[in-house]
UniProtKB/TrEMBL annotation:
Pfam families hit by this protein: HAD_2 (PF13419)
Natural source organism: Lactobacillus hominis DSM 23910 = CRBIP 24.179
One function term, GO molecular function aspect: hydrolase activity
Protein name, UniProt field: HAD superfamily hydrolase
Keywords: Hydrolase
Annotated InterPro entries: HAD-like_sf, HAD-SF_hydro_IA, HAD_2, HAD_sf, PGP-like_dom2
Length: 199
């Protein structure tokens, strides 16, 4: 019997799209492209998620790589980008419905702590019963140990837990541990609801 629903963040509870994030800042096309490469497509961006460096260290590196006229923009983007992400309201409405039906809701995300804390400290944090974040654990999906951290920390049984992620490699890794899985895109929300209703 299904008791626990575990959500990835990027492209599951929100639309993670660097171009759309950067559209919130006043940038020319050239500046937009330069900052996308310098920040979101950098190796340091992945290292933030992996817990190898933190956002402050990464910001200094990004600032050092851009022309003088964009240094303040880098600081501004790094300080404010989480507020400029579009969260999927229908997903949160559905999570609210699941909570009323006594499902436990968890977050398992490859993300840095700035974004993790932004979600936890906002009203979105009220939707979750617990979290595991890659930067904090210094483990990244699809490493099996990060799923095991979640199961062990909250005393969850794998077979009673559904893991939802947009990447097949991540759902496959959860499946190997005996979890139920669903590979998600926002246009599959109806399919997800049908799956949960039938389990």
């Amino acid at each position: 019997m299904l008791k626990n629903i575990i959500f990835d963040f990027g492209n599951v509870i929100m639309n993670y799209n660097p171009d759309e994030i950067l559209n919130h800042y006043e940038l020319s096309r050239q500046e937009h492209n330069l900052l996308r490469k310098a920040i979101f497509e950098s190796k340091e961006w992945s290292e933030i998620d992996a817990g190898k460096i933190d956002e402050k260290q990464a910001t200094k590196i990004f600032v050092s790589r851009v022309p003088d006229n964009l240094k303040n923009k880098v600081n501004q983007i790094m300080a404010t980008w989480p507020e400029n992400v579009d969260f999927y309201e229908p997903v949160f409405n559905y999570i609210e419905h699941l909570r009323k039906d006594d499902y436990k809701i968890y977050g398992l995300s490859n993300t840095g702590m700035e974004f993790a804390n932004f979600v936890k400290d906002s009203e979105m944090g009220n939707y979750f019963d617990g979290y595991v974040f890659s930067a904090q654990e210094r483990l990244m999906k699809p490493d099996s140990r990060i799923y095991e951290k979640l199961l062990n920390r909250y005393s969850l049984k794998a077979e009673e837990s559904l893991f939802i992620d947009d990447l097949k490699a991540n759902t496959e890794a959860a499946k190997k541990l005996g979890m139920q899985t669903f590979t998600f895109k926002i246009d599959k929300l109806d399919e997800l609801q049908d799956y949960i209703a039938s389990h």
